Amino acid sequence: MIKIIKHVIADILRNKIVIAYTIFLLAIGMSVFNLEDNTTKGLLSLLNIVLIVVPLVCIIFSTIYVYNSAEFVELLVSQPLQRKHIWLSLFSGIALALTLAFFIGIGIPVLLYSFTATGLILVGVGLLLTTIFVAIALLAAVHTRDKAKGIGIAVLLWLYFSLLFDGLILFILFQFSDYPLENLMLVLSALNPVDMGRILILLKMDVSALMGYTGAIFQNFFGTTTGIISTLLVMLLWIVLPMGFSLRKFKRKDL
Amino acid sequence: MKSFLLCIGFMCGVYCIPIHAAIVYVGKGHAYVSIQQAVTAAKNGDTVWVAPGIYKEKNIIIEKPLVLLGENYPVIDGEHTYQMISVRANEVTIKGFKLIHSGTSSLIDIAGIKVYDVKNINIENNVLEDTFFGIYLQGATNCIIKNNRLTAYAKTDQQSGNGIHCWKCDSLNIIGNMVTGHRDGIYFEFVTNSLIWKNRSIKNSRYGLHFMFSHNDAYIANIFQNNSAGVSVMFTHGVKMFNNVFEDNWGDGCYGIFLKEITDSHISGNTFLRNTTAIFFEGATRVLVEKNTFIKNGWAVKIQANSIQNTITHNNFLANSFDIATNGSLVENTFNKNYWDKYEGYDLNKDGVGDVPYHPVSMFSMIVAENPTAMILFRSFMATLFDKTEKILPSLTPENLVDKFPYMKPLRL
Q1: Contacts of B377 in chain A (CB under 8 A)
Q2: Where do the structural domains in chain A lie, given as residue ranges?
Q3: Which residues, listed in sequence order, are joined to residue A72 by a DSSP beta bridge?
Q4: Which range of residues forms the domain containing residue B33?
Q5: Cα of A51 to nearest chain B Cα, Å
Q6: B178 and B326 housed in the same domain
Q7: Which residue of A has its CA nearest to B365?
C-alpha cells in the first residue's frame, strides 16, 4: 500500500499542476502579508482563498487525476491486491500531495507573518478542507465512467458547497424569520464542511461581533472545547463518509 | 487693598483652625477602644487617629467636621449586617481604612461609606471589600473621592449594589478609584458639574459607568473593561468623554458606550477595543465624535435613524467586523474625514484624501440588522458577493451615509 502511495505522490509531483498550485498559493500568501501592514487584513484575504480556491482546485484536480489514472488502477486491480488498499492509497496519495502543497503555499507564510490562534486555525481548516474535497472528488469520480460528466459533478458539488448552500440557508433564514432558528442553524451548518470551517475561523477572527445575541449561541457551542471537538469530528466525518461510500462503490464497480 | 488684607485675614482664619485641632487616638493601649466613642468625644475639626486592628462598630455616625485617619489600614467590619460609616456633617475626611463585609438589603441601600446631604467631604485611600454599595453620596456637594479600591463578590444584580453611587450631587471629583465586582462601577443620577478622572471600572455585573440626568460632567482617562453591559449614558446634555479606554465589553445589548437621548456632547480621544458594539447612538443629537480609535470591534458604530446632527470625524477604524450599521435609510449625520481600513479607493493628486467617497455601511450589515441569525453566513462567498454588488449598484444601504473625504492613511492620534 505504501508503495502505491509513493507512486501516486511521485506521479502527482511529476505532473506540474500541483507545483504550479503550490507556487500560486505561496505567491498569494507572501504578497498578502507584504502588501498589507495589517496582518488581520492579510488573514482575511487568505480566508477567501481557503474557502473558495482551495476546495475548487482540490475537487477538480483530484477528479481529473482519478480519471487519468484509470488505466493504472485497472493494472493494479489485475495484481493480487485488495481493491480497498488500491482506493485508499490513491486517496492518501492525492490528499497528502495536496495538503503538502497547501501547507507550503499558505501554511508557511501564515506561520511566518501571523503566528496567532486565528492563523493556526486558518491553516488547520485549510488542511481539513483539502482532504475533505479530495474525498468528495473521489466520490464524484467513482460514480460515472464519463470524464466530462465526472468533472461536471465535481464542479457542481463545489458550487453547491461554497455558494448554493449558503443561498439556501439565507432563504430559510428569511422565510422562517419568525421562528428561533439558531439551533437549527447549528445543525444545518454541519451539513457543509466549508461553513463549519468558516465558522471556526470566524470565532477567532470576529469574536466581538459574534458575541451579539445569536452569535453568543454559536460561541456557546463552537467556542467550548466540546464544540470544537465535535466540529472537528463532524469535519472528519466529512472525510470518512464520502470515502466510505466511494470505497463501497469502487469495490463493486465493474472497471 | 482693604479687600486684599481681608482676604489674607480670612485665609489665615481658615488655615488656623486645624492648628487648634487635637488628635484623638483610638486602638489598643490608647484613650479609646472604639472609633464611635472617639468620634463622639472629639471636638469640631479634631483628628481621630485609628491604630491598626479589627473594629466591629455597628455603623459609625459622624455628625461634626472631623478627620478620620487610619494607620496601616485598620479594618472596620460590618459583620454582614451593618453600614460601616455614615457621614452627616460637612468638612469630613476619611482616609486609610479597610471596610469589609457590609450588610445587604433589598429595602435600604447599605453602603461602606454613606454621605448624607453635606458638603466638602474627602474620602481617600480606603479599601472596601465585600460591601453592598461601596461609597454612596446622596445630595452631596463639592466632594473628593480619591484612590479608593472597591471590590465586591456578588453573583447577581439583586445581591449587589453600585461601587461609587452618586445621587443628586454637584461638583464631585472622583479620581483614581478602582471598582470591580459591583453592579454598576460608577453610578451617577442627577449629578452635575463633576469630574471623573483616571478611574478603573472592571468586571462589574452591569455597567462600568451608568449615568442619567447628569449634565455637564467630564469623564477623562478612565478605563472601562470587561463589564457585562459596558457604559451607559442617558438623558443628559453637555457630557465630555476624553481619552477613556473601553475594552472587551461583550454581548448583545452590551456597548462600549450606549448613548441614549444625549445632546451637545463631545467624545474625543477614546480607544475602543474588542467591544461587540463600540458606540450605540439612540436619539443622540449634536454629539461630536472625533479622534477616537476603534479596533477589532464587532460594530464600531451603530447609529439609529433617530439620531440627528451628529458628527463623526477624524477617527481611525481598524479591523472592525463592521464599521457602521444603521436601521433606516434616513441619515442626518456626517461621517466625513475618517480613516477606514476597508476603504479601497485611490488618491490621484496625493493629498492624502481618497478621491472616491467611502460607504461604510455594508450590505451584509443591513441583512444582519434585519435578521441577526444571518450572522452565521458572515464572510461567506455569498456575503462577499453581496457586498461587492452593493458597492457597484447601491440599493439597500443608505446612499447618503458616506464619507466624502476618507483618509488614505491612519491618523496619528
Answers
A1: 166, 169-170
A2: 2-252
A3: none
A4: 20-227
A5: 8
A6: no
A7: A209
Please tell me the total count of domains within chain B: 2
Instruction: Identify residue B207 by its one-letter amino acid code.
Output: Y
Q: Mean pLDDT across the stretch B237-244?
A: 95
Cell 498559493 appears where?
A25
The DSSP code sequence of B98-143 is EEE-----SSS--EEEEEES-B--EEES-EEES-SEEEEEES-EEE
CATH code for the domain of B199: 2.160.20.10
Provide the shortest C-alpha distance from residue B13 to chain A (in Å): 59
For the stretch B2-47, pLDDT in tens is 555 555 545 544 444 445 678 999 988 888 999 999 999 999 999 9
- Name residues whose C-beta falls within 8 Å of residue A158's C-beta, 6 or more positions apart in sequence: A55, A56, A59, A60, A133
Residues B265 and B181 occupy one common structural domain: no
Contact status of A209 with chain B (Cβ, < 8 Å): yes
Mutate to test the interface with A, among B302, B381, B408 (most CBs of A within 10 A): B381
pLDDT of the residue at A37:
73
Helix (H, G, I), strand (E, B) or coil at A182: helix
Whether B14 is covered by a domain: the verdict is: no
- Say whether residue A244 is in contact with chain B using an 8 A CB cutoff: no
Residue B404 domain flag: yes
Question: Nearest CA to CA, how far is A22 from chain B (Å)?
Answer: 22
- Quick check: helix, strand or coil at residue A152? helix
Q: How confident is the model at residue B365 (pLDDT cuts 50, 70, 90)?
A: confident
A170 lies within 8 A of chain B by CB = yes
User: Given this model, what pLDDT does residue B16 score?
Assistant: 47
| Domain assignment of residue B12, yes or no | no
**Domain match, B221 and B238 both:** no
pLDDT per position as a tens digit, B259-274: 999 999 999 999 999 9
Residue B110 domain-assigned? Answer: yes
